[in-house]
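Progress against Task 2.4 (sequence-to-structure conversion) is shown through the following example record, which the project officer requested during the mid-term review.
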Amino acid sequence: DWTPTEIDTSVAHPARMYDYYLGGKDHYAADREAAEKVLAVLPEGRAMALANRAFLGRAVRFLAAEAGIRQFLDIGTGIPGPGSTGETAHTVAPDARIVYVDNDPIVLTHSRALLAADRPGLTTVIQADLRAPLEILEHPEVRAVLDFDEPVAVLLVAVLHFIKPTDDPSGIVDQIKQRLAPGSYVAISHGTGDFDPDRSEAAVRGYDSATAPFVLRDHKEVAGFFDGLEVVEPGVVQLPWWRPDGAVPEDSDRIWLYAGVGRKTEELPPA
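Structure tokens generated for the chain above:
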């Protein structure tokens, strides 16, 4: 009964499909149907979602603990769950400021209830679309929490692969990078078909009925998002190999996403 009226529950949404992969409960029949189409071709899909959530945690811990970042802009945050950006950052830095951005009304509803309420002034949630990056960066609620004259970490975790080529994903990322202060970081994870093109392409057909398609990109394309940034070691790598907490499991080669973190060291030309 609490579902916002603007949510079309008859059409699958990637955020709710992702919640289904993670074992959450905030999804509808259309989301489950689309997700099961993916899992029928790619049973590893659940493992990929879990590995992606683990990468988010490692990246945020690195940014807060080692890089000293105290401002986070999480775009495409998805439905909140354990290991969220704020939960992870605040274990390292209780004063960290977090802005969550997503274009799904159900994400906005959950996030405002679960993430922002307990840290007024330090956390906010807005509904916006990555395809209009300047609207995000100039949003008054974002500006009330984040100071873009100081370093900010922008998290684009498992979101760019929902941006079609015609929407110019590289241009979107360039606009974001250009607006950040030196010392800022960008973290990205992105699905790829490099490891099994045929099965990957078949799996992402499950998103054809969703609100956004899934666009696979190769290593060169994903690495290109970091142009102009100093890429943090170990570089743009298969997701489980980005600063693992321990030994990488033997079956980690089935995680078909790339991940990386880059640091802005100097001003960039206008995008």
